[in-house]
């Protein structure tokens, strides 16, 4: 079996580029492929360890995390999570592969934006990939997610495809929202992903509503609402938190602290930038958001907590490499040295690449093959998206909340008399 093909079958997110046979078969192939690799049952603790041992792709490996969790009011509950996480070779290789795919997709979006194939808003997620990937390792698609406009990779994490993201970015009919939403409006209802929100903080009360639904329906699931350090100062967050705490809703608030809200550093906007403590009476946990395994462990803890006791506030310590959006060069309010040092010392993709190589779970040649396969997925998705048609004209006026024809007003200067209205 060709390794590149195998990795694509076992790991890629691509629905439409995914070869047509079941994942179980792919995983069986992966297992046979993995059998020859050295691995460890009890791996501890440093990334630099090079112990060789044999284990299959699904054998449990225990990793000691290099940064401790920091808690807020957790003593009244289960205390702090310990500093170890259980994983497998298959999971770690998948995490690397998924994060690498996300990184390449965001780099491609940057290039396409500069080439004017993508217009309008575009907020990239590169640097923050470990949150998305680690979070999904602790959740299932019956748990709900709602996030901000920085949503491209969340869509992949929820099982969406690179084509869906790319086509949406280019305003094409094959996009996640049929090309009428754009960068800020990825959406995947079948995996309980409710977007993509352009209004800062708007997702916080939406997340509380989703958590209410899970509890009301007696489902063993949680709702996760992700927001930034800038959004963390919004009033609606505290209103929703109050009601969620009163009603013990299974809600996980996740503050993705990339340390800037547009060009404003966290300390200039927040009197208390310890965002995991900002729930006051609601417990919190600070997590290394640059390590997908730390995120997984923290999320496992948070899900169990939310189901048993109600809301919890997580702070993911992370960093965005690009500017706030494509119109921000990202270097006027922070130094280039700062960006470079995070890339060199904390990059989530590099961290996992180093980990699986140091543990001798894969060879350098195999890592290169994974990377080549993921780059090909992105390249093909770009071409498919470019060839995708524009949405039909009448689609521009479907799913509108207000019937502006009745109100006799234009929408953003568009003359409504020249289009027909299609209600969906
Ligand atoms: C209610 C509202 N106010 C202001 C804006 C403009 N705005 C868009 S993003 C942003 C900064 C948010 O920063 P943060 O929450 O840290 O998220 P990040 O962009 O860093 O992911 C602002 C002020 C908006 N979209 N909505
Ligand atoms: Mg921010």
TrEMBL record:
The Dehydrogenase E1 component domain, residue ranges: 98-391
Keyword Protein biosynthesis in record: no
Top-level lineage group: Eukaryota
Species the sequence originates in: Cymbomonas tetramitiformis
Catalysed conversion reaction: N(6)-[(R)-lipoyl]-L-lysyl-[protein] + pyruvate + H(+) = N(6)-[(R)-S(8)-acetyldihydrolipoyl]-L-lysyl-[protein] + CO2
A Pfam cross-reference name: E1_dh
Oligomer and partners: Tetramer of 2 alpha and 2 beta subunits.
Protein keywords: Oxidoreductase, Pyruvate, Thiamine pyrophosphate
Gene Ontology BP terms: pyruvate decarboxylation to acetyl-CoA
Entries under InterPro entries matching the protein: DH_E1, PDH_E1_Alpha_Subunit, Pyrv_DH_E1_asu_subgrp-y, THDP-binding
Name of protein: Pyruvate dehydrogenase E1 component subunit alpha
SUPFAM superfamilies documented for this protein: Thiamin diphosphate-binding fold (THDP-binding)
Reported function: The pyruvate dehydrogenase complex catalyzes the overall conversion of pyruvate to acetyl-CoA and CO(2). It contains multiple copies of three enzymatic components: pyruvate dehydrogenase (E1), dihydrolipoamide acetyltransferase (E2) and lipoamide dehydrogenase (E3).
Gene Ontology molecular function: any one: pyruvate dehydrogenase (acetyl-transferring) activity
Necessary cofactors: thiamine diphosphate
Entry EC no(s): 1.2.4.1
EC class of the enzyme, as a word: oxidoreductase
NCBIfam families, per the entry: PDH_E1_alph_y (TIGR03182)
